[in-house]
Automatic annotation (TrEMBL):
Record key words, sorted: Membrane, Transmembrane, Transmembrane helix
Native organism: Sphingomonas bisphenolicum
Pfam families per UniProt: MFS_1 (PF07690)
TM annotation in the entry: 22-50, 62-83, 90-110, 116-138, 150-173, 179-200, 257-287, 293-314, 326-343, 349-370, 382-408, 428-447
The name this protein goes by in its record: MFS transporter
Length: 456
């Protein structure tokens, strides 16, 4: 049904010598992820500050946390279809231009206007999901097979930097800038848009899958700063039929489809539940101000960043499947301990906090292995939609995960310490179960792609 990778455009990528131009493109695509995730997750810290001040209920607070995830699902679904039809680059440029503007506009919302806040967060997610699908597909499709596992995993490390920047900004800049000033910082990713437009070529793999062989060769040549004559052109691809352009074609790959739903859905549900409610939970359990609670999450984020380096290494040594299982099952055990002993102490520190910091090494580090994977397991002709499935599943998880604690605490209850403490143990035990299910997807549904070329 599909041509082999050896007969298609991945040969173009594999013929190139890694040079300066490739690394500039790769670093630009990767480093921008740090600021994208800062924009996406800063809301958890903003809500920890405005929820008490605006007297928001758990339901209203959850709406502020979750609307971006709903928007990301819609944006990813649309972006995946359009990226497969019109190419990766233009979809990336549209999304990368719009989401920072929507994120910064939150700083203009009037005090108490949580509805406008939630609507803007929806547009943040919409634009992020729209462009993110194309971005992850490009990262995989522009990387030579021999280095793809390690480099695409390494490209997820800057996301960990974004997780560090969010609590660090809250800790250091909340007092001088206020929550509105922190929102305005979300304009920073706009700086990457000109670099994307000028430097990044269209995916040679996508061009080849559309039968545009000459364009594919020129794109590969520009990526590696080589003459087009350097490359042996791939055999012309068979032009896609109308049926191949339909999203339902994803169902031709049920194992991969199910894997994306379960691994991304449940893992993201647990991570979102922990990271979005975590600052508030720590503040309430320890009786700290939002600014001081964010200080603990600097340590959580640093642990997660270290985990991304660790799992970049492990994915290259052990492959995608073994690495995914180690990350998911380990996170499940640590979060279960945190849930069962939230008030216990070790060396004078709450065991809940210790386990949270250690668990981040695994649950955040896991994304270095997990995030690039959908673009590897689906053929290029549907890879955009395959990545979209993972984004939609992730978005569903990011809605369902945080809602667990909100429902357990009572969505109509005002945020307060007693309600938060009562919901912590059952809520975080459920998060541990979610991590275990995500890991089980690697065990029973995973497809090993390490050192294997993508399929056109």
């Amino acid at each position: 049904m599909h041509s082999s990778a050896s007969a298609g455009s991945p040969l173009l990528i594999d013929q190139g010598r890694i040079g300066t131009r490739f690394y500039v493109v790769f670093v630009s695509l990767s480093l921008s992820l740090a600021f994208e995730l800062f924009d996406f997750f800063i809301v958890g810290f903003l809500v920890s500050a405005i929820a008490p001040a605006w007297q928001l209920s758990f339901g209203q607070s959850a709406a502020l946390l979750l609307t971006a995830s709903v928007g990301a699902m819609v944006g990813a679904a649309a972006g995946g279809v359009l990226a497969d039809r019109f190419g990766r680059k233009r979809i990336l440029l549209i999304g990368a231009s719009l989401y920072p503007i929507a994120a910064a506009a939150i700083g203009l919302v009037a005090d108490g206007d949580w509805v406008s806040f939630a609507l803007l967060r929806f547009f943040v997610g919409l634009a992020y999901g729209f462009g993110g699908v194309a971005q992850f597909a490009l990262i995989v499709e522009l990387t030579p097979t021999r280095l793809r596992t390690v480099l695409t995993s390494a490209s997820m490390v800057p996301i960990g930097i974004g997780f560090v920047l969010a609590p660090l900004s809250m800790t250091l800049l909340f007092e001088p800038l206020g929550w509105r000033g922190l929102a305005f910082l979300c304009l920073a990713p706009l700086l990457f848009v000109p670099a994307f437009w000028l430097l990044i070529p269209e995916s040679p793999s996508w061009l080849s899958s559309k039968g545009r062989t000459r364009d594919a060769v020129r794109a590969a040549a520009s990526l590696f700063s080589l003459s087009p004559d350097h490359f042996t052109a791939p055999a012309p691809a068979v032009a896609p039929t109308d049926g191949e352009a339909k999203p339902l074609r994803l169902l031709d790959f049920p194992r991969q489809f199910a894997f994306c739903l379960l691994s991304f859905g449940f893992h993201s549900a647990a991570v979102a539940g922990i990271l979005l409610w975590g600052p508030l939970v720590v503040a309430m359990l320890l009786g700290l101000s939002p600014q001081k609670a964010a200080g603990y999450f600097v340590l959580v984020s640093v642990s997660g960043l270290a985990g991304r380096f660790l799992f970049t290494y492990l994915s290259q040594r052990l492959g995608r499947l073994t690495t995914g299982q180690i990350a998911g099952y380990s996170a499940a055990v640590l979060i279960a301990i945190a849930a069962l002993f939230p008030q216990s102490e070790l060396f004078g520190i709450k065991l809940f906090v210790i386990c949270l910091i250690l668990a981040a090494l695994f649950f955040d580090g896991a994304f270095a292995n997990l995030q690039p994977h959908p673009a590897e397991i689906f053929p290029v002709t549907v890879a955009g939609r395959g990545v979209a499935v993972s984004h939609v599943a992730s978005g569903l998880g990011k809605v369902c995960g945080p809602m667990v604690l909100a429902v357990l605490a009572g969505t109509s209850n005002v945020v307060k310490p007693a309600a938060t403490a009562a919901a912590t143990t059952p809520g975080f035990l459920i998060m541990a179960g979610f991590f275990a299910i995500g890991a089980a997807a690697f065990t029973f549904l995973g497809t090993e792609t390490h050192k294997k070329p993508v399929v056109v």
